[in-house]
Amino acid sequence: VQRRHQKILEESPSPRVDTFLREAMGDAALRLARALGYHSAGTVEFLLDDTTGEFFFLEVNTRLQVEHPVTESVTGIDLVREQLRIAQGEPLGYEQKDVRFQGAAIEARLYAEDPAAEFLPATGTIAAFEPAAAPQVRWDSGVVTGSVVGTSFDPMLAKVIAHAPTRSEAAGRLALALDKLHLGGVVTNRDFLVATLRTPAFLAGDTTTDFIDRVGPPRRVEPSDEELARTAQLAALWIQGANRAAAEVLTAPPSGWRNARMPEQRVVLVFREREIEVRYRALRDGRFRFGDGAHALRQREQRVRAA
């Protein structure tokens, strides 16, 4: 599955490629490598006509590509290690007949980009990046909480790879892992990836290059009024806690402390075209009571990164 001619979901084995087609593609790739006198790890790309089953040469990449973890997952072969061994003049530690597939693997490219704005790259500071402990998936990432996403580099934040006995299990595991990721601070394609992985068309293996335009997975989450109000309350307390943690004077009093009966604290947040007002008051036991009287929450330790 791709957008703007760049892949965002990749998998192995392909639901469209059978044993005969895989052998034909492999033979074509080997003949090409031999004709070039090529001796290293590399990737030969083909395009497959989904109607006729014909495949056509696209390009050769003289390196491993972003999607190599799906092959590693289903074969158990460390391709990066093999590439380094070849560069040192060592032979491969196995033969083609030794390669076996086990289960299915799917990789998602998590980008700082806005699917609702035609996947334009996004920038900002990552306020939270904490993968959940379960389900177990592979996270290949170079960012952490506090990382700055700028314009000098590709906006990919992570590759997330799920491996399972069946393709549907791998898709479900990957969607759940992305859904449970604690992520904030920048606009990402996380929700779009989750929605795509859960569409009937994807689960049926109907994944052609025009998948996004043809199937039309939701490009952003539309929260309910209740979810939006609850999120705004949490955001208001986060802002309050961040301001308290960054204070340089009167640091001893607890967050929200007042020495007299004062009006409720008020913050107005904007979500797309809507304004959400949040009113809250600090209680004596350290909790905060919201203006609607529905919740009383207690802040946990808050860490902020000074500029």
Describe this structure in words.
- The protein is of the alpha+beta class.
- Helix content is 28%, strand content 26%.
- β16 and β17 form a beta hairpin.
- α4 runs antiparallel to α5.
Features:
single chain, 307 residues, alpha+beta, four-stranded antiparallel sheet, 8 helices
Offer a quick outline of the entry:
By secondary structure, the protein is of the alpha+beta class. The chain has helices at residues 19-36, 68-75, 79-87, 167-180, 190-197, 200-203, 211-215, 225-245, and strands spanning 2-3, 6-7, 9-12, 43-48, 55-61, 104-111, 113-114, 120-121, 124-125, 128-130, 138-141, 148-149, 156-164, 182-184, 265-271, 274-282, 287-290, 296-298. The strands form seven sheets. The chain has a four-stranded antiparallel β-sheet with strand order 3-6-13-11. It has a four-stranded antiparallel β-sheet with strand order 15-16-17-18, with helices on one face. A two-stranded antiparallel ribbon has the order 1-2.
Low-pLDDT sequence parts: none
Largest sheet: 4 strands, antiparallel
Count of discrete alpha- or pi-helical segments spanning 4 or more residues = 8
Report the average pLDDT across residues. 90
Shape: elongated
Strand fraction? 25-35%
Would you report the number of β strands? 18
- Strand order, biggest sheet? 3-6-13-11
Distance N to C terminus: 38 Å
Question: What topology does this entry show?
Answer:
Elements: E1 2-3, E2 6-7, E3 9-12, H1 19-36, E4 43-48, E5 55-61, H2 68-75, H3 79-87, E6 104-111, E7 113-114, E8 120-121, E9 124-125, E10 128-130, E11 138-141, E12 148-149, E13 156-164, H4 167-180, E14 182-184, H5 190-197, H6 200-203, H7 211-215, H8 225-245, E15 265-271, E16 274-282, E17 287-290, E18 296-298
Antiparallel strand pairs: 1-2, 3-6, 4-5, 6-13, 7-8, 9-12, 10-14, 11-13, 15-16, 16-17, 17-18
Helix pairs in contact: 4-5
